[in-house]
Amino acid sequence: MTRTLLSFGHGYSARALARRLDEDWRIIGTTRSEDKAAALLAEGTEPRIWPGANLTPALDAATHLLISAGPSEDGDPVLAQLKDEIAARREQFTWVGYLSTTGVYGDHQGGWVDEDTPLAPSTRRGQLRVEAEAAWQAMDLPLHIFRLAGIYGPGRGPFAKVRNQTARRIIKDGQVFSRIHVDDIAQVLAASIAHPDPGAIYNLCDDDPAPPQDVIAYAAELLGMPIPPAQDFASAEMSPMARSFYAESKKVRNDRIKSDLGITLIHPTYRAGLKALLDSER
């Protein structure tokens, strides 16, 4: 039987999932860009330029929904336009996945958080995610929420900046981040689709939260290039967006994806992930 995934905001993580699904799947993905639509078509995904396209036929066909599109001050963009249409079809969906962020937990001064940690975002981006999660939870769908740490993978990582010598090792005492390779995002989503558990919330991160300067240093070592000099966070020139990422420091637990979904991480540490990226380039 053909299963149909309708993927809203079919970007980096969703495309990685699509590569894992077998040929029995029909995948419809929305994008805002004509150029990206052509790329999706080449990958076997049926593109829809949205907002703009009439998505009623796609919703009629969908058995699974994936929402990667982020919220704005106007709320969740999918619910803003399609809430009633989605609600009217709730019985036909086997699985709904919402990609959120570990930013919903806020700052824990380097301490550990898990899926039961109270949500206390310290940035506006995190607050909007909390509101979007709640809006989707109120829809009475077979919803699964995935809170993603910092994403890296092919085309996304520190190597380019290290090579062109624009990488910076920003030092903020006690700062630590969790991260996740896109291949592991894809395998967790695929495992959840295979074993739905409506209402479940999962943290997606690897086993090795680390200071960001350590990741840059290791990338430089792998490339055989000089380690970029350290810069103090307080005096470093940074955009407000870049600086906001340093407003929160926490280590994220991933036990639930292992115990509930049987996940063995492909890239359990940033060292393993970066080495694999470099090996694949070569």
From TrEMBL:
Gene3D superfamilies: NAD(P)-binding Rossmann-like Domain. CDD domains: SDR_a4. Keywords: NAD. SUPFAM superfamilies: NAD(P)-binding Rossmann-fold domains (SSF51735). InterPro entries: Epimerase_deHydtase, NAD(P)-bd_dom_sf. It comes from the Bacteria. Residues 88-204 form the NAD-dependent epimerase/dehydratase domain. PANTHER family: EPIMERASE-RELATED. This is NAD(P)-dependent oxidoreductase. It comes from Thalassorhabdomicrobium marinisediminis. The lineage of its organism: Bacteria, Pseudomonadati, Pseudomonadota, Alphaproteobacteria, Rhodobacterales.
